[in-house]
Amino acid sequence: VTLEERLRKLCASPFISDSVETVEQAERLAALEKTDKQQKLQIAHMQKTLRGKHEELQRLRARNDDLAKKEERLEHTVQQLRLGAMEQAAGKADLSRRIQLFTSGPDGVPGEELEKALAHVRRKLEQPSAAASKGKAGGGASGGGSKKKVEEVDVASLKVGGDLPPGTLIWATRRGESRHARVIERRQHADDEFYDYYVHYFDFNRRMDEWITKDAVERIDVDGSLDVLRKGEKERIEAEKRAVEQAARKRQRKDDTLEAIEEEHGENDGMDEASLLEHEEVTKVKNINKLELGRYVMDTWYFSPFPREIFPDGSIDRLYVCEFCLSFFKAEPELRRHSKKCPLRHPPGNEIYRHEGMSVWEVDGSVEKVYCQNLCYIAKLFLDHKTLYYDVDLFLMYVFCEVDEYGMHIVGYYSKERYSEQGYNLACILALPPYQRKGYGRFIIQFSYELSKKEGKVGSPEKPLSDLGQLSYRSYWSWVLLNELTHLAAESVSIMDLTVATSITSDDIVKTLQYLNLIKYWNGNHVISISPELVDEKLKKLNSKPGPRVDPSKLHWAPLHVHVKRDKWSIRAKLHNRDDA
Q1: DSSP conformational letter for 216
Q2: Which of 168, 204, 271, 514 could be bridged to 275 by S-S, CB 3.0 to 4.6 A?
Q3: What is the CA radius of gyration of the chain?
């Protein structure tokens, strides 16, 4: 056998073929790795470029917003100058009429008196503010006439396509009544030159702000001052608080009962005037007018920071929301197509309670991020000073639903932190408007305290509370404490006994008992003084309120274990501290 034949046989052997294939595969793999590395470098470069473009876009948007604000201020200044010019023109017209009256007829006015009258009118035209104040006192007839002329001209201009700048004070018709209002924003019709105006009614909550047409504008308030009106609103609120305090004091007995008034926590607590003005500026206009959720269409109350692509023109009339997964859409056909494909008929998460047509679901923010974020977006439409967290990983959402053959329909919800250093058992609470005044708020609050009992802790809602939250919690605390006082022995009951039985903090218990006039100062100590007739009367009133009640036996839930060396909010720690004292 020749050497060539032996080499040919060796090359044809499987070992050599496999080796050659292995080498080729290794070369191809190396080539692929090289290509992959190059593509990753290209992607990193593109991402870096994209970040730069995004930052540049943000700067341009910020600059555009600044320019828009400057343009708005300039338009407002121009409008004020235009109003001033119209007022001067009206004053000049009034001057001409007075000159004719002075000089016409057989009883003409002498020249000296005419010069005095002209000088008087010129002074009023040069100082319109001084003329306005004198006119109110009865000495500026020409100033009052010019203002009346301005009102007539401005209202007439609205009827032919005029415009009112933001900040203008007006009188507008709301539900058949004339209301004092301020123009917050304006928008022009696409098919004509008319404007609609977004107004805030003085002496009303911001939730009543709305868009009105030109026909609802009665007249312009040229005498009004925004600072004066804001001061008047503030004084009205303070006067209402004083009236509540006086009414509470009148309810107290005239003996040695402790005179202490419950401290009010408003939703504006902790915010100075500058912060409030900044908040009002950012959220001054509702971006969504109506919310369609399930079988209900709800008028929204406040601004909510939904993604900008939902309202590219600044606002939309109606937002459509899937009541099961809370996905939102701009058009009804989009919601219909989604509903045919949506697999859910209940909130995602774990069902922990069901009884008498009510169901409660625990949703983990770290698992169902999109659902929880959408829930916060919706809640912000009905809560003014709610802090919106885009990172919902630290929160648990408890969603309350009504159950029927079509699924589980959301009624409201509350959120809580996994562990709160301040001992809060509730961070945010909301009962949707169609279900308010039906007892669902008290049901949600009662449920939060039932979970606190399961945890063996005391709890309190996160402060400050909204106005509706204050009413709901005060009603619940009164109802629970009065029920407990009827069951416990009156001669041995203490604040700690009530805390252990209800999981309500001692501070909240003391304030509620003071509000109910059940704490009395006797022999140098504050004691709980119970009148059976008074307790029965108050309980009868509270028990007459409608709404479901929580049945603790239907609750299937275990508390989340948190690694804390010593939880100061646990009832065991509270009892230990009392024994040490």
Answers
A1: G
A2: 271
A3: 35
CA distance 445 to 429: 8
- Residues, the chain, total? 581
d(CA 257, CA 456): 33
CA within 13 Å, CB half, 500: 12
The pair of structure tokens assigned to 189 is: 């019709």
Residues taking part in catalysis: 462
Confidence of residue 266 (pLDDT cuts 50, 70, 90): very low
Report the C-alpha gap between 217 and 196 in whole angstroms. 10
**What is d(CA 434, CA 299) in angstroms, rounded to the nearest whole number?**
10
Q: Which of 257-271, 335-349, 418-432, 433-447 has the lowest mean pLDDT?
A: 257-271
Contacts of 366 (CB under 8 A, 6+ apart): 392, 393, 394
150 in Cβ contact with 86 (< 8 Å): yes
Q: Alpha-carbon distance 94 to 91, whole Å?
A: 5
Q: Which amino acid is residue 296, in one-letter code?
A: Y
pLDDT in tens, 213-224: 888 888 887 665
SS3 category, 274? helix
Q: What is the pTM (predicted TM-score) of this model?
A: 0.63
Place of tokens 């902790």: 270
